[in-house]
Amino acid sequence: MPAKLSVNVNAIAMLRNRRDLPWPSVTGLGRIALAAGAHGLTVHPRPDQRHIRFSDVPEIRALIDDEFPKAEFNIEGYPSEDFLQLVEKHQPEQVTLVPDDPSQATSDHGWDFAGQASLLKPVVARLKKGGFRVSLFSDADPAAMSAARDTGADRIELFTGPYGACFDDSAKAAKELEKLAKTAEAALAAGLAVNAGHDLVVDNLPLLMKRIPKLAEVSIGHGLTADALEHGMAGTIRRYIKACGW
Ligand SMILES: CC(=O)[C@@H](O)[C@H](O)COP(=O)(O)O
Ligand SMILES: NCC(=O)COP(=O)(O)O
What we know:
- This is Pyridoxine 5'-phosphate synthase.
- It is a single chain.
- This protein has helices at 10-16, 26-35, 56-67, 81-90, 117-129, 145-150, 161-165, 170-189, 205-211, 222-243, and strands spanning 4-8, 40-43, 72-77, 94-97, 133-138, 155-159, 193-197, 217-220.
- It is an alpha/beta fold.
- It has an eight-stranded parallel β-barrel with strand order 1-2-3-4-5-6-7-8, surrounded by five helices.
- It has ten helices and eight strands.
- Helix 5 links the parallel strand 4 and strand 5.
- 46% of the residues lie in helices and 16% in strands.
- It is globular.
- The protein has a single domain, classed as Aldolase class I (TIM Barrel), CATH 3.20.20.70.
- Helix 2 (26-35) runs parallel beside helix 3.
- Bound molecules: 1-deoxy-D-xylulose-5-phosphate and ligand LD2JLWAY.
- Residues 8, 42, 76, 157, 197-200, 219-223 line the site of the ligand NCC(=O)COP(=O)(O)O.
- 1-deoxy-D-xylulose-5-phosphate binds at residues 8, 10, 44, 51, 76, 98, 106-107, 137, 197-198, 221.
């Protein structure tokens, strides 16, 4: 089975937050994504709520429960007490823990599983006790997978940023892809399932899927949102030209 697609709606929320208006609608576009075949929705609320607001989370939960009960909700973030209470309240199917500093512009590295074991182990145990599937954001490092497994998590999410960033240079991209593939193999051998995300786009997905056929899920937001704008622009201009009376 190919990897499932979870659509990250952070970029849509960021656009909405430019004005005190309800559009673009995070749940409205989430509905379009799920109706078009996406398998789930991802949010990554950050402490300053600069894109996803905590108030978006119950609305997305309700959208999935009421209209797409087979879809999954994936919430990503740093395991602060606020974040843990948010996920416990709104019950996503998957929680992805990411080692982001609050001031970070976006995610740019995975966990140090051995060095941060004392933080991760009790948090993973608490989330597992709550019935959540737990995934941990991970750099491409096959040697770290036994420590990842020892945290008690179910999955890792491979940080694909370095692969996405050099995709124009096929030799560099092949090297990054090989590191990701070796990490996925080590994770699977350790009993962890493997997700992937960050800077994935239509052009760099097929090679990733081919080299790591056992990927369980990819979460994609920035590139997918940019594509939605580009591919929807011509039809939108036609509607506005018509509204102008042409
Ligand atoms: C963990 C990860 O790679 C994504 O969640 C990414 O961080 C999206 O977050 P932003 O939308 O804040 O860039
Ligand atoms: N976990 C990665 C994610 O949700 C989306 O990352 P990006 O496509 O916005 O870079």
